[in-house]
Amino acid sequence: MIESVFTETIFEQLADHLVRFSPGDELEPLSGGLLNQVWRVRGRPGSVPETVIVKWAPPYIASAPEVPFDPARLAVEASALQAFSSGGLLAAVDTRDVRPPLFYGFEEEESLLFMEDAGPFPNVAGWLNGVSVTEQNVDRTGAALGAFIGSLHRISARQPELRKVFDNRSIQATRLDLQYSQIGKYAHLAGLRDAETLGQTALVLGKRLQEPGYCVIMGDLWPASIIPTDSGIRIIDWELAHYGRPAQDIGHLTAHLWMQFHRAQNHRFANFVWLLLRRFLESYRKALGSDFERLFGLGGLEESAIHFGSEVLTRTVGIFQQGYLYEGLSRDDDLVQEAVQVAAMHIRRPLDVETFIPFR
Prior knowledge:
The chain is an alpha+beta fold. It folds into 2 domains: 1-117, 2-Layer Sandwich (Phosphorylase Kinase, domain 1), CATH 3.30.200.20; 120-360, Aminoglycoside 3'-phosphotransferase, Chain: A, domain 2. The chain is 46% helix and 13% strand. It has 13 helices and 12 strands. The strands form 4 sheets. A 5-stranded antiparallel β-sheet has the order 1-2-3-8-7, sandwiched between helices. Strands 6-11-10 form a 3-stranded mixed β-sheet. The protein has a two-stranded antiparallel sheet with strand order 4-5. Helix 12 packs antiparallel against helix 13 (334-348). The protein starts with a helix and ends in a 12-residue tail after the last helix. The mean pLDDT is 93.
C-alpha cells in the first residue's frame, strides 16, 4: 500500500500543476502497467479536468522489483508529451485520429508525471474482442495507427535536434541486457539447434541499436499502449521513446499482434487482429512515401524481423513470459513450440518471412 505521505505529496503537486483541479480522497490503482505504478485521481465536483492519470517510476521494473530500471525514463515520457503539444517539436505530426495523452505536469525529483486520462476503455486487444467492433472499425483503426507512426518517423527524421531531446540510450542498454543478449540462452531453452547462431544475430542487432538512430520511435508500441476511445486513439506509455531505428516500433507491434493472433480464442478475434496488422503495415508504408527507402528499406525489414523473433522468444520462454499470453505454459507445450519456431524463422531468415509483405 502506498504511504499516505506520498499520497499527500502527489495531491499537493497536482494542485500546483492544475489550478482548477481539486483531487478527491484517494489514488485509484490501474492494472496493466509493467514498468511503473499508475493511478487515476478523480477530482471533486467542478474540477477541470474531471480525472487525472498519475504515473510514478520507481528505480526498478514495477512488475519485477528485482530488475533495476532507470527512473529517468519518466523524463523521456514527459518530453514526448510536451513535444506533441501545440508549438512543440512534434506538433507537425498528424494527430487528428491518434495522439498521446495531454501533458499536465512533471516532477522530476519524485519521478511523477501527470497527464490526461484516456478513460475507462480497453486496450486495442480488448477492443478487438468487443461485440460491437466491425471490420470497418478495425480497418480504419489500423490505417490510423500506421499513418500516425509513419508521420512520427518521417517528420522527426527531418529534425536532428530531437536526437538530444530523445537520447534514451540507458533504455536501449537495458534492452540489450534483458533481451538481445539473452536470445541465445532463450533459444537453447526452447531446444533450437542453432541457438548460438540465433543469439549472435540478435546480439548484433542489439548492439546496432545502441548507435545513433534516424528518427523518434515510440519505443513500446504494443497492444497495451494503444487505447481506442470515443474521441480517437490514445497512445500511452512513452518512457521508452528514443531517437532510434524505426524497425524497433514496427517489429515490436507486429510481434505482439502476431502473438495475439496465435493465442486467439475465436476466429473473429483472430481475423480482426490480422486485419489490423495488415492495415497498419500498409498505412505505415504509405505514410513514409518517398522516404521509405531512406528510412526503412530492406535494412529496416531485416531489423524488424529480428526484433520480432527476439520479442516472441522473450515472451514465450524468456524473462517476460509471466503475466502475458504464454504464462504457465511449459517450453515443450505445442503452442510455445509453434511460437518458438516462428520466432526462430524471423531471426534465421529475416528477409524471407511473409510477415512484412506490405514492405516488399
